[in-house]
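Support reply, case 0932

Customer input (verbatim):
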Amino acid sequence: MRTRIIGAALAVSALALTAVAVSGTAAEAKGRPCGPPSTTDGVGSAGTAFTLKSMYDDDGPGLVAGEEFEINTEAAGQHWTVTFSDNGVVFFANPDDVSTATGIREVHPNHITRGTVQHMNAHAVRHDTGEVIDATVVLQPVPDRCGN
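Our regenerated output:
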């Protein structure tokens, strides 16, 4: 009987330690060393929905601020001009971005300098209607804990 009680106590202790280890790993995954993303949602001048997300990342060659821009066109075959800029400097441009059935999705990184606030902008113009989308997010200077 005593052996069963000791065995049960050890099993409960092992489960408790496993739960702490798993929750600790999940907490680390949520708190990215380079900080959380900055996101904005909105609609263009003719009502087309968009999302712009930007965040620091240190898993590439050097430190980058990446932009992810989605236009919810809800139709294939729309032609858009899409540009990304960081503090007013264009780092990606596609003069004829053609939508799929779900829309347009562009993801591109830009190398950054530490100690600088990043004003990340996506600008898009639909060719046939002239609809304009302008989206901006701001990233505060990259945290010291972020690598590279």
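We compared this against your earlier run and they match. Two observations from our side: Residues 120 and 137 are 5 Å apart (CA to CA). The helical segments are 2-30. Please reopen the case if you see a mismatch on your end.
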